[in-house]
Amino acid sequence: MTLPRVHVQARAAEAVRQGHPWIFASQIHTWEFEPKPGALVEVLGPQSRCVGFAYANPRTTLALRMLYTPSAGQRGPDGVPEERTELFRKLDRARSRRQEYNWDTDAFRLVWSEADGLPGLVVDCFGDRVVAQFLTAGMEARKALVLEWLVSRLKPRGVFERSEGVGRSREGLQPVRQWLYPASPAEELNPPAVISEGPLRFWVDVVGGQKTGFYLDQRAARRCLQGRAFSGNVLDCFAYTGGFSLSALQAGASRAVAVDSSARALETLRANAELNGLGSRVQPIRAKVFDFLTQAAQRGEKYGLVILDPPAFTRSREHRERALAGLRDLHSRAGLVLEPGGYLLTCSCSHHVASKDLLHAAISGLRRIGRSLKVKSQFGPDADHPEIMQVPESRYLACVFAQVGP
Ligand code: SAH
How many angstroms is it from 350 CA to the middle of ligand 1? Predict the structure, then answer.
């Protein structure tokens, strides 16, 4: 077997040598012959020197995603990397990286795409259930190998596939939600499962919940709340299933008002509060956050801690200014219901809004209503969502914990 070969520009070859995982269609000189979407190709730089092996999708602008280095340990007799051995090696490495930490939880991200050298693959573990996302044609083509590893190494009760999102349709793939393992899943795998995180337990609906069921990437922010002592009332805006509400209550807050527009999320939030014996201290409210904040301010409500964790205000650079204006407005409204000296946990999950943009939006939104902000800590996701230094886009989540002056 010979691999299709593709010649790329010197700059792209150098970027790959430095660890960049992508090559765009515009950086390609020639395809020696056009590969099928997802096929492995040999990537050649100046003087036709091999810079590594990628999987290709000639239909997308992000045409090549690097998978193996030129020295990829295990090669067959024809010089082509042995994919099973190489993929398993990467998956083993991703797993042992996670085992270096003690997150005190059975819920964590095991594989995070390019950051684990496995572009297009996301694997989240929720106790004995695993959720996998195959987001590119390249990973779709390697699904059987990945599944073989998941089942043999992790010995899960079930593996659920949630391959969805715009990225996948750009790759020419349909969205898929299905149990991959066992082949004919027992009905009892469908209802939500319970995970534990520190002192709390949560219901996680891997089949019907948002994303893969739970916002694993906010663990550091939940821990930030759990590590403090609160006494007053909390307003959890964009609460989903209550990760922040319950963390604040566990840290001593007396009552949490949890606002979300999704009835389904709030149902799970209520169940989560019951599961932790906190049911009487949570008030779920189905509303749009902007409207709720305006009305709460009119009613004169005040909270000692306000949490803002909205969905991405923008997914594209061109709408950045509008997103920042929206964020400023959100912070002005939140400031109106914050007690003097109250705390603010604010987050942004768009890589077009960097942590300094979020901070500026918070400062200027609060200044508009005459209030100041003192930063206590700034952070992103835990180490189960590593960033790639060469890819600024991988830095997508920013959180600021601050105290708001009178
Ligand atoms: N804080 C949550 C995650 C929030 S994700 C956690 O840590 O688990 C964003 C949430 O905002 C989703 O649950 C979504 O249903 C909700 N949402 C989106 N737009 C909204 C709006 N305008 N008003 C209220 N909730 C909204």
Answer: 14
**349 annotated active-site:** yes
pTM over the 0.90 mark: yes
Provide residues with CB under 6 Å of ligand 1: 210, 215, 218, 238-241, 243-244, 259-262, 265, 288-289, 309, 311
CB 230 within 8 A of CB 304: yes
Same domain, 254 and 382: yes
CA–CA separation, 31 vs 99, rounded Å?
A: 40
What is the domain range of residue 94?
84-189
User: Tell me, what's the pLDDT at 320?
Assistant: 85
Instruction: Calculate how far, in angstroms, residue 56's C-alpha sits from the geometric centre of ligand 1.
Output: 35
Q: Is residue 199 part of a domain?
A: no
299-319, pLDDT tens digit by residue?
999 999 999 999 988 777 788
pLDDT band, residue 102 (cuts 50/70/90): confident
Confidence of residue 73 (pLDDT cuts 50, 70, 90): low
The domain that contains 37 carries what CATH number?
Answer: 2.30.130.10
Instruction: Please write the tens of the pLDDT for every residue from 254-278.
Output: 999 999 999 999 999 999 999 999 9
The atom number, within ligand 1, closest to the CA of 218 reads 7
Alpha-carbon 384 to chain mean position: 10
* pLDDT above 70 (res 74): no
